[in-house]
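Appendix B, example 12.
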Amino acid sequence: MNLLGTANKKYIFIPLILLVFFLSLLFRVTNLDLIEFKADEGINLFLATRPIFGHGFVPGGTVSSLGITNFPIVNYFLFPLILVSQDPKIISFFIALINSLAVAAFFVIVRRYYNQTIAFISASLIATSPWAILFSRKIWPQDFLFPLFIPFFLSLHKIVIDNDYRYWTLYAISSLLLIQVHHSVLFFVLPLTLAMMLYKVKINFKYLVIGGILGLIPTLHYIYYQLSTGCFDCKMFLTSGQRVSDQASLFLFIRPFQILNQGNFFPVLGEDVIYFAKNFPLAYMLKQFYYLEYILLPIGAFLF
């Protein structure tokens, strides 16, 4: 049963989407002076500003934890924002605004393909999720993951549900851009694409190839750099096993499922957790509410 009703759902659509957007903005565009700005954020800003000072774009981004050069996609995303201002707080504001708009877009898509109740609950959880907020207001590649997920999410539904195979272009573009933002997205996109093939979703190779070509354009400078240097990062990748833990750890297992890790902020805040609990008691107390999200995965799997 739709908790928000069906007769008046059209009339409450605008108030609901405005509420979701307000909740997103409330925790993203406020307290801009408290946003983390350390080495990675500084390097990203430095690399993206190079063209302003007469230099070209560099072929890569920051260096990943495995010692491999990241794709330069974040430099291209940041450049239009830097043309407006080089102030980290202003740039962070725009990134937060883009993420807030993405949450509102997520609400619209879920409402279109499921129902208004599910859309409001899921979008509200994303709008107020501590981890989602943390990774939506910094000058960091991962802060562009959710905005890029929106066209991917839309294209997936257009292909599978609406049978509009022109959206293979958008699916390919968004998939490749997501992978360029963070390599680990490959382990999400690849199984999902294979599952679509397994369930015999029609593939339009024309639109898929077009999307693939467009999605690879931001990597051309990176590929040229790798080829001209003897693929330096290939060698780093082959030796990256030395940087991977060989210890079995439950924490390492659940780390990728960060959305379920609502209560543990120690990896990010460290000893400042004590300062946070003392100076922001209400926020620290409300984080316990998000422990309820731990049960969403098994419940969702059961309902599915």
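DSSP finds 17 helices and no strands in the chain. The two ends are 16 Å apart (CA to CA).
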